[in-house]
Amino acid sequence: MKKKCIFTLSLLLVSLVGFAIEQLTLGSYTYTVDTLENYKAGPGTQYTSLRLKSGANRIDAFFLKVDLTNPYIQFNVGLGCDSIYRGERPSEYGARKTTDTEVYIGGTNGDFYQTGGTDPMGYSIVGLPIGATMTQKQISHTPNNTRRAIGFSSTKEPITGTVVFSGEAKNLTTNETYPIKHVNYVRYADELVFYNDNNGKITRTNKYGSEVVVSLVGSDTWGANKTVRVKVESKVVGKGSTPIPAGKGVLSGHGAGQTFVNALNIGDELELTFNLTINGVALDYTDIISGDGRPEMLKDGVVETDQVWNELHPRTGIGYSQDKKTIYQCVVDGRGASRGATTLELAQLMKASGAYTAVNLDGGGSSCLWLKDMGPQNRTSDGTERSVSNNISAVAIVPGADTTITSILTYNTTIKLPRYGVYMPKVLGYNQYGILMNKDIQKGITLSCTPEMGHIETDGRFVASGTEGGILTVTYNGTISTTVNIVLVTEAEIALRLDSVLISNKRPYPIEIRSIIGKDTLTVLPKSLTWQTHDSNVCTIDEEGTIIGHNNGKTSIVGNLGSFKDTLIVTVENTEYSPLLHDDFENADNWEITAQSNWNTVLSLDNVPASWPHGGALNYTYQTSRVPSIKLTHNKLFYGLPDSMKIYLNSGDIAISKMYVGLKANCDTKATQVDFLNIPSNSDQEYLIDFSDIFNTNDFAIYPLSLDYITFYIKVSSQTVGVPYALAMRDVKLYYAGVPVSLKTPRLNTALVVYPNPVTGGEAIVKLNLQQAEKVRMEVINLQGQIVKHANLGTVSAEAILPLQGIPSGSYFVRLIQESKTDIVKLLVK
What we know:
Elements: E1 8-9, E2 23-26, E3 29-42, E4 45-54, E5 57-67, E6 73-79, H1 90-97, E7 102-109, E8 133-135, E9 138-141, E10 148-153, E11 158-171, E12 177-180, E13 182-183, E14 192-196, E15 210-216, E16 226-237, E17 249-253, H2 256-262, E18 269-278, E19 285-290, E20 298-299, E21 302-303, E22 315-320, E23 326-332, H3 343-353, E24 357-361, E25 369-371, E26 375-376, E27 390-397, E28 407-410, E29 414-418, E30 421-423, E31 427-430, E32 436-438, E33 445-448, E34 455-456, E35 462-463, E36 470-476, E37 480-489, E38 495-496, E39 500-503, E40 509-510, E41 513-517, E42 520-524, E43 530-533, E44 539-541, E45 546-549, E46 553-561, E47 564-572, E48 580-583, E49 591-594, E50 602-604, E51 616-621, E52 629-634, E53 644-650, E54 656-664, E55 672-679, E56 685-690, E57 706-714, E58 724-735, E59 753-755, E60 763-767, E61 774-781, E62 787-796, E63 799-803, E64 810-817, E65 822-829
């Protein structure tokens, strides 16, 4: 079976800002820090994942560090499905919005949002962000509350604080003005509210007001802290919920605001002024997203300690460096192996990573950090990425499409390997703008190293077979290169991939040893360990680390490397001939029947074809059923390492539309189903299942295999109520590659009488009827051909008692070896 726990081989610990961090104090705990991943995600964008541990406490944190001085990079706030009343997964939003010239590199979820309720008109407000929002030069939502936000100007300058909106509409015909109270917000008494297409398809207003649709004049564009000229295109009085055309807006007035709107005529022009300040500062903002209502969790290098969200939850934060040239996005996992964080701990973590000011965004199941082509990087507490109100992403604005790879990097720049550790770097390919074109280049990669470091295998992998570390050169297509620093260690925390394995004398097992480097799994050659076999009669291990099976049995093998020690349990099950009879359906105890209760279905020896050497039949009396079916559940492991199986049956008068066979690998929790359709009636049928079609039979983790169930779906048209039916099944046989095929089956002496059969009391009597007394020996053989018991029965002439005590339930052959001949009988032990 598979190991459930594999130890981590630590990387060189590098923080987001480039210096080594081995310990970090968050709250009342001091953590050791492991860097699991650290690579370039896009232009000016570095992705890093950290694992922090303090005793039983663990925090998994994920970062994007974005260089705002990169000429291609900017930050965009996005609305789920482009509406403040909708939701969308952040990674799916980024994929949807990406074009040849606007590439979404990665980002996080954004603001807290409404999860229920309705507005005064009865419309659902699910998805509505709680705080102020601005998306790509268009003001999206202005509730004018005290929640802290982060905004970006057209020059990419970030700023945090409380957002305050004010606006004004001026009728250029009358020079009359009226204040605009909100953008995309509920219109109350005497208010004038502006709506744009971020509000959705309509204004969601009642009929007690007037509304005009306006469009921009000339080359004007929407924005903040600016005045734009618009023209009235249409006017609606006393109706409400006016449709909002894409790219245009609607002025909606009530009371005194309605009077202002009523004075407008189609063709009139207005000046609309939209003022936004963050922390009292008015800039030409392009994007704004809000967090919670507490002060910034990190402000000017000082962590907020008074107003702290003290519960441990998944968290999302965004902040910037003191010079405002770097943005830090961070997600902390929680509600699982990772404990989550308070806002104080999140602030301390972001400060240690380089942030000078930071805001706490929505957390919990919403927390998600995603990357282009990679999807979510954290393990969301919902188990899957959640659709959220809005998101904030690093976006590359480039001249055009370019798929040519001009530079490469590896996911890890430093790797620690034990001697004989095997490593093949995972290589990332970027175009001239730094956009990731290939997250795992497979072709055209070559490695080179000095002989002192090791050698390159014929399959291209590096093997640390030398005596020292050094620089491993990675080259793509012979021209583009990068390097990895290889550090050779004498002590390594490694693990055997399997803790137990099933083999045979035909299938030796090359021991698999793994090390975890960050999130990558590496191989260690077994020759790097010293090995000891507990019982060499069962198996031995050669100098290359391959286990060779000899005789049936179970033993253990121990591997040592420095202070590391691990044990592998080895079971050997050899097969002398193929096929082997797995089950002959004669022992009903081997199967659990699921069928309609009033069918009275039983598995018995009745109605088995007379020409068959063995078998059983499902006997039932049909009663009305909407979906007639019979399921046989089995819990018996297959012997050894078979490569295929056959099921032999005869359905008689029953028309079977589908037969489902469920097979389970040892490493799987659920069965894999194989389907057979339209089983012919009244004829013997044989169905072959090749295990390589459904399992990776090269992987020893799948063994032993087992037959989980056989389900028959019966055509109603073939059934008559009250009529008995029989579905006969002869056997399930297993076939083994490389094992001689048995051309004969044991010839039974059906003239001999054995009773009782089935055997229930631990012994049976056989009538031999010999001409004269002879010495008789008994061998009891299971269906796998193994002798499970033998005994001398003494000198016998008429009857012999067969001692069968201690034999498990099942079908057996009993070989009676006499002086003049040998007879074989079959019996069933219960």
